[in-house]
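Chapter review: from sequence to fold.
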Amino acid sequence: MPNSGIFRVAVVQCSSVILDVDKTVEKLEKYAKEAADNGAKLVLFPEAFISCYPRGTNFGVIVGSRSMEGREKFRKYWESSVDIPGPVVDKLSKIAEENKIHLVTGVIERDEGTLYCSVIFFDDTGKYLGKHRKLIPTAAERLVWGRGDGSTMPVFDTAVGKIGAVICWENYMPLLRVTMYSKGVQIYCAPTADAREEWTSTMRHIALEGRCFVLGCNQYNRKSDYPPGFIDDEYDGLLGNEKGTDYIMSRGGSVIVSPMGKFLAGPVFDKEEVLYADLDLDDIQRGKLDFDAVGHYARPDVFTLHVNEKENHTTVTESQTQ
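The token string follows.
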């Protein structure tokens, strides 16, 4: 890991090819190459990029009832998700290697019958570094995503610095943020589905609090990006959109923020765009002159955080306990 140095990062604000893994990977490859050609050494894609964030559907679930149509929609969603390890991971590894980039992207991971909102990491040699599973799906996301555990909260020491990821509203979990700071995160990736202007304030706050670079990355997409029948009738026309028109589903709002809370790129709304910024890792130490959340500004005599990083299993065999 370098203690100093200036390098370029890229944040890709675009839509998945909804429910189509192969075409979404092709789109990721296109933007990864474009970013690499523009000098980026790290490229970040949004939450649930492969194969999609399921905005606009309730999968046929209301309290006390599930529909067969919703079950079939979930089956299709499961079919378009990613095995880790698996062929999609192998393709992404090759993309990272060929473009000599550190690649970070959101995926919908399947593990047997359960889906997880995850982020996976690759270094610039194409090595798969690991994953982070979202700890708490937000609101209706809990219908279709399982919960991660403390075993997937990594910060990876790479050639461009210490990289970690916190997904969407996990960023409102103060103790998770403290855990990331305590691991020395320098490039704090925040793939999200939150397109509110208020979200950019959260990104600036975290950069200031953690004295780290924050890369916030969201999708930009429209109703026409979703297959016919995917969006529920009761969602169509919400949020002031005219029912039946090709309105914006996610505005984006991606940003790159310095350790002093300054925008280096963005926020960008209402269009597909790749954001770039040149990061100087020395700015992290400059910022810690007067604030280090887990160092000289901490009070371990008053506040102490205990973190359980054990992997949880539903079934534990005798051989696992010996």
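Two observations follow directly from the output. The longest strand covers residues 102-111. The longest helix spans residues 21-37.
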